[in-house]
Design goal:
Elements: E1 7-9, E2 12-14, E3 20-24, E4 31-36, H1 40-58, H2 62-78, H3 80-91, H4 95-116, E5 122-130, E6 139-149, E7 152-156, H5 162-175, E8 179-183, H6 190-201, E9 209-211, H7 217-225, E10 231-235, H8 238-251, E11 254-258, E12 264-267, H9 273-280, H10 282-285, E13 297-301, H11 302-317, H12 337-353, E14 356-359, E15 378-381, H13 388-391, E16 398-404, H14 409-421, E17 425-426, E18 428-432, H15 436-445, E19 450-453, E20 467-468, E21 471-472, H16 477-483, E22 485-493
Parallel strand pairs: 7-8, 7-10, 8-9, 10-11, 12-13, 12-18, 13-16, 15-16, 18-19
Antiparallel strand pairs: 1-2, 3-4, 5-6, 6-22, 11-21, 14-15, 17-20
Keywords: Oxidoreductase
Protein name: Aldehyde dehydrogenase family protein
Family: Belongs to the aldehyde dehydrogenase family.
Length: 494
């Protein structure tokens, strides 16, 4: 795994101007591989290659685009064991997560958008009867709305899931006839280069897919500000998204932003506590809490508050933390030493703010943890809405619990909704209640891009994206095809 990777530009594997940097295994702190450091000029060259390829690829019949995506899915499936090993090594994900939620999801997304390439792009519009006037004689005007590719798309991916996140951008973009420049997260770019190699083997034409990487912020900046780029699709922090949005605004570039989250999990007195604990508890284990959709901010009605806290503490206590390659490991490391320190600083901040550390709060002990960026699953109770640990995204295995009261069922609903919406974020919230009508009523009032009712599960055809500072636009399913296309109106006389 330690061989040097090259940039992928215009169908060629190109040596990087800036040399290479080490990609570190979060579990062992050993070197996984050497990733290329692109120069600003090389990033712009990748965008130019994508621009040159766009004219041909955008006119390629949908059936041919679908075939390329389908073959890519087959290649990734064939080599999925080695790809999962790579994902585990550079992200710190457990073997089960790397196989089932990273590589397997990438396969599913290429297969989904192989079919998506064949979805109709035309929508017939009702004819309009026009009276005679300055625009011409009276007549019936027909019209059709057609979705066209945007052009060159820069795809900037997140570190928590390089396979699924990159595939979720590249596959629908290619299906619609766009060409792409992919800039993976600096912590784990090797998986994205492996995906590029799979696409090359699948027959993607030169320049249609380009991959550039680097630790310098200038690499990402060049991928955004290149005059050849028409759209930026970004997954990452709100702060970085805001800076990207400023550049896109100056160039009138289309944006798709999936940013931070601080998912509220409302738990009413009549909730199934076992189900609520199991759902909220995924924050402790799934990607070690490094996921924007996690129900990290629990808003619990007083009648179940103590039992819910006890249940979550017991749940966290049973989770095995350790080597992500071990069969019984549930919680692996976070991505880096810097991020581990950041998560720990939030836990300490919560303690100073007055939160009660029910469980966790430090690093796991034992000889097996001499190396690795591990954080023990942590539960903070007795939190107040104005605490920073309640308001800010921690992005680690940390859950905060805020109690609420309500003299009547109606008052309880109003209080819970107000607490949930008192946030800069609005990606995905959750409602647990035995009264399904109440759960749907509350869900409909939450300012959030998605709401899980008595579940943390997802429907992968449902639109995904956020309100407020959690993002701009929607993707997943057919919504992604719309996100990577522009609507064109064609009008004619009947």
């Amino acid at each position: 795994m330690t061989r040097e990777r090259r940039l992928f530009i215009g169908g060629e594997w190109v040596g990087p101007d800036g040399g290479h940097y080490e990609v570190i295994d979060p579990a062992t702190e050993e070197v996984v591989g050497l990733a290329p450091e692109a120069s600003r000029e090389q990033v712009h060259a990748a965008a130019s290659a994508a621009r040159d390829a766009f004219a041909s690829w955008s006119r390629t019949p949908p059936e041919e685009r679908a075939a390329v995506l389908s073959r890519a899915a087959s290649v990734i499936r064939r080599d999925s064991a080695s790809y999962a090993e790579l994902a585990c090594a550079e992200t710190g994900a457990t073997t089960a997560t790397a196989r089932g939620m990273q590589v397997a999801v990438a396969v599913a997304r290429f297969e989904r958008y192989a079919k998506g390439a064949l979805e109709p792009v035309e929508t017939a519009l009702p004819p309009q009867i026009n009276e005679a006037g300055p625009m011409g004689r009276a007549g019936v005007m027909g019209a059709v709305a057609v979705r066209r590719p945007v052009g060159v798309v820069t795809c900037i991916t997140s570190y928590n899931n390089p396979w699924a996140n990159a595939a979720g951008k590249v596959a629908p973009a290619l299906a619609m006839g766009n060409t792409v420049v992919v800039k993976p997260a600096p912590q784990d770019p090797l998986s994205v280069y492996a995906m590029a190699a799979a696409l090359e083997e699948a027959g993607v034409p030169p320049g249609v897919v380009n991959v550039v990487s680097g630790t310098d912020a200038g690499v990402g900046e060049a991928a955004v500000d290149s005059p050849q780029v028409d759209m930026v699709s970004f997954t990452g922090s709100t702060a970085v998204g805001q800076r990207i949005g400023e550049v896109c605004g100056r160039g009138m570039k289309r944006q798709l932003m999936e940013l931070g989250g601080k998912g509220a999990a409302i738990v009413f007195d009549d909730a199934d506590l076992k189900a609520a604990v199991a759902g909220i508890g995924t924050t402790f284990s799934f990607y070690s809490g490094q996921i924007c959709t996690a129900p990290t901010r629990v808003i619990a009605q007083r009648g179940v508050y103590e039992r819910l806290v006890e249940g979550l503490a017991a749940y966290a206590g049973h989770l095995r933390v350790g080597d992500p390659r071990a069969r019984d490991t549930v919680v692996g490391p976070v991505i880096s030493a810097a991020h581990r320190d950041r998560v720990e600083s939030y836990v300490e901040l919560g303690r100073k703010e007055g939160a009660r550390i029910v469980t966790g709060g430090g690093r796991p002990a034992g000889p097996g943890f001499a190396k690795g960026f591990y954080v023990t699953p942590t539960l903070l109770a007795d939190c107040a809405p104005d605490m920073r640990v309640v308001r800010e995204e921690i992005f680690g295995p940390v859950v905060v619990v805020v109690p609420f009261d309500g003299s009547t069922p109606e008052a309880a609903e109003e209080t819970a909704i107000a607490l949930a919406d008192d946030s800069d974020y609005g990606l995905i919230d959750y409602v647990w209640s035995g009264d399904v009508a109440r759960a749907f009523r509350v869900a409909g009032r939450l300012r959030s891009g998605g709401v899980g009712v008595n579940t943390v599960g997802r429907n992968m055809e449902a639109p995904f994206g956020g309100f407020k500072k959690s993002g701009v636009g929607r993707d997943v399913g057919s919504y992604a095809l719309h996100a990577y296309s522009e609507s064109q109106a064609i009008v004619w006389p009947g």
